[in-house]
Model the fold of this input.
Amino acid sequence: MLEFIFGLLGEFLLQVIVEALIEMGFRSLAEPFRRPPNPWLAAIGYALFGAALGGLSLLAFPNNLVQGPWRVANLVVTPIAVGCVMAGIGAWRTRRGQHVLRIDRFGYGYLFALSVALIRFYFAS
Done:
């Protein structure tokens, strides 16, 4: 049971840290382009970028951090938790008067994390 909790926590932290780093990169790239893009194209972009990052994460972490039947629970719970963290970051940035990117909202953060989790679910050993 303790192994499951550490695995779940590790998977959650991996996705939150990577997503926060990606968010910082998007922030620097998006600054010159203030006009928001089409939300459907942005969603597709986040899903593709998350899938690519999920594939890259397999190089560093080829084994699943959550083993056995808990993998399905991880596939459901972790993206929701990461989406909530990103929504919290977005609310924090809004209170500070900073520009909020799309990934700072629950839906886009969830979609990104779900793409990472799906790739890791199907391809990690």
User: Anything to note?
Assistant: The chain has one domain: 2-31+41-123. The chain is about 75% helix and 0% strand. Residues 2-30 form the longest helix (29 residues).
